[in-house]
Amino acid sequence: MEEPEARALNIRDVAREAGVSYQTVSRVLNGSTRVSESTRQHVQAFVDRLGYSPNRTARALSTSRSRTIGVLAAPSALMGPGTALTAIEMAARDAGYSLSITNLRSNDPADVRSSIDYLRGHAVEALIVLVPQERALAALSSLNLEIPLVTLGSGGEPNVLVMDQIAGARAAVAHLAELGHREIVHIAGPHSWVLAEARIDGYIEELSARGLPVHTPLAGDWTAASGYAAGLSSLAERRFTGVFAGSDSMALGFMRACREFGVQIPRDISVVGFDDFPEAQFFTPPLTTIHQDFSELGRRTIFFLLARLRGEEYDERPILPRLVVRESTAAPLDR
User: Which domain of life, per UniProt (predicted)?
Assistant: First the structure.
């Protein structure tokens, strides 16, 4: 029977043996001037004695001083990605970093590689991935990147910061169910988007947990036009009293279709959106929705990357969206 492979030394092991904090070890390894010469010699003696070799992320900080973070994004007119990028840029600037941004022309693996090469040419120290399509993410995972990377996603994979889309979707459905709605439909985003799939999963999970019927999601593409089309196709044979729209824009389009059918919200149908765009509170009626804290996401993204550059650990707990109740939801008439 083979002996289990020994765990590799990390920065905390050195800190424990040397009797100092891991931040002090990190400063010594990165040549910081904020460490006294006696402390530097003390820590270096333990580094040498233990045979510890700083990992790539620590070396990147000491050898590459571009103070630039690369962002791989997908072209989008949607408010969500744009809001996230703004929050990331502000957090990076506060930390003394700038962004180098490139947009994918397509989800083709060759274009993903070309975009990464472009960012490498700008000597970026780390990489943020704001690409929501599954094919592009799969192409990215096949590349051997030698810099810290973080993907903004919906799952629990390594190097992924999560705005918990499943929890947000479950909160939306739970709100409708607790009001007394038993027939709840979902207007979903495009199937190629990881976020859309996660919101579908949350919709199904919450209904199943409550023993309520699960309906095939209505197809959408995040836009108000697709929500309007979903409304036109479903309201003629209305067999539901609750709607969970995968975005506020799709909720807006659905509400327009309701007005054309003479359906009153929330008397006849309750509607919940997702994102909590600033305009949501000015819909008619004001939209109940799921709020996503993009500012916190941007802050955590930068803190995560800076910790990786220093060879430190970082808490990757997901950010929980929260329900914002306004006037588009109420108990069904037959309750």
Answer: Bacteria
